[in-house]
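Risk register update: the risk of archive-format incompatibility is retired. Evidence:
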Amino acid sequence: RLSDDASSTDLREWLVERQRSWNDLHDRQSLPTVSRRELKQHASSDATTDASDASVDILLTPGSHPEHLRTTLRTVLAQDHPRWHLLVLDDEVSSRVRSVLDEELEPETWTMVEVAGAGGPAGFERALASGHGEWLAFLTAGDLWAPDRLLQLLARAGRTGAEAVADVMKFVRDDETSYLSRAGIGAEKPTRRSGIAAERLMLQRSAVDMLGIASDLAAGWEFDLLARITQRTGVPLVPAIGVTRHLERWREAKW
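Archived output:
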């Protein structure tokens, strides 16, 4: 029991300071999230005026379903930002898949990168060696891009100076109900629970080159790279749905 006013005052001050510290820690550990209100407001605004004309290498996992790949490619061809190049990860793709690439794309817009037997970081490094873009994006067959996706990401990167940016991804279930992946990464050192799917990200190539790939992490190299970038500049979020994944098509394309 405290017996004098000075001790009581000290205790109150200590409790207030302690509460402030807890609140600060909670704010740092809380994941930033794009709200539905932000999504609606952003949809009615022109947020691409700060987009640069930087070139973007798109690392494409082509899958095994030709028609789902065709649909995906057409959303790339419809991009408002014209400076992109596809790096197609060739893990023994079928002749039918290769035919779709030939039919849909001009020869100068894509490069086949042999990654068979070079899983994880080795395959990523082979793709990097084949590309020349200033930014890196990731695409999986079956996914659909919004037409202004690259412009939106480049605009956010230009305004913030960040080395990585991300947008919102919509998942459509087999029964046509859907949900959104819209959380980002907090200010503290990221944990696995706060990772962002590669398909939502765009990374600055110079930052990737400078930081390097942890080639000894066969299963966690992507997260390790993102964690190191996050601690440098954070990962600002674009409050817009840039990627839509129909889960049934994605499964079919994958297998």
